[in-house]
Design brief:
Layout: E1 8-12, H1 17-28, E2 32-36, H2 40-48, E3 54-56, H3 64-76
């Protein structure tokens, strides 16, 4: 049983070094993931490698609407 079973973690910059490392670590500990990055194809490819329930939403985190949508997606999870 992982330390984050039942938790949902939102990670921006998910395909970069820190983001991908965090996503892998949280997935290994049982978290559900909401991932975001600029490149939708790279984001989908990365999410497919994770052994976790994962939702993705691509876009620029500087866009206020994307930020709102990510939080809503995390709440739904």
């Amino acid at each position: 049983m992982g330390r984050f079973n039942g938790a949902t973690v939102l990670i921006t910059g998910a395909t970069g070094g820190l983001g991908s490392g965090a996503a892998k670590a949280f997935a290994a500990e049982g978290a559900r993931l909401v991932l975001s990055d600029l490149n939708e194809a790279a984001l989908a490819d990365f999410a497919a490698t994770l052994d976790a329930e994962t939702a993705i939403l691509a876009g620029n985190i500087a866009d206020e609407k994307l930020s709102e949508d990510l939080v809503q997606l995390a709440v739904e999870k």
